[in-house]
Amino acid sequence: MKTPSRIEPLVTDGLVDKVIRQLMSGKEAMVYVVQSGDEVLCAKVYKEANKRSFRQAVDYTEGRKIKNSRQARAMAKGSKYGRQEQEAAWQHAEVDALYRLAAAGVRVPTPYNFHEGVLLMELVTDENGAPAPRLNDVVLSPDDARRYHAVLIRQVVRMLCAGIVHGDLSEYNVLVDSDGPVIIDLPQAIDAAANNNASRMLERDVDNLATYFGQFAPELLRTNYGKEIWSLYETGMLQPESVLTGHCRRHEKLADLNAVMRVIDAARDEDTARRARKVAP
Fold first, then answer.
1. Is 177 noted as a catalytic residue in this protein?
2. pLDDT, tens digit, for every residue of 52-72?
3. Looking at 185, 191, 205, 207, which residue is catalytic?
């Protein structure tokens, strides 16, 4: 097929030999199958901000590192330079997340290069070498649903141990190769330690998985892995192989209001005495 204009710089620089075909068009990017030397890879071409349906909501971008104060000011003002830098930061978020997660043992496509706004990465394939299907296109038995759910919950844990929350995880952002689920689409990845929305986003990701797999194995609808995982993370106890139960005990002990009032009264009395000492001759 004709080489898309956004991929032409990669051809010029010898990173891509030819474009084989378009693989998919999503809300944030176009993905192509390309030849690079002896390998067949994916080339993810990010759509311009005004052409994609997924917006850079502050819930996702909060806590992301900014290079310098000039960049921060430009992004806050919304200048042309600021919009360019904001777009570059959005794209780099996925690249950085993929490298970090691959190093942490999370099942994500292996990233190879990021050049001129195009991400070159592994083409995830099925047992026949064809592009792997999305999870929502796979027919699941109850046993497969339980197995895939367990695998993805473990991947969510590994991601969080690496400091990352996916933020948009669902059956549409998971591929299934011959070894099972592979997580994709991470430009909205969240820094778990720096984003105040991280716990809510993680719980939503986990709830999405339970809702989908619960169609095939209804008992998964009664699990509560999200709160359990975040509780372990908050207390510093979460490990990649932490044993999970799918339940999180809520602390519903009523506050001792009388004790609280005694503390307040004591503080007030102490402040009154201190003031009296100050005015005493």
1. no
2. 444 445 554 555 454 555 554
3. 185
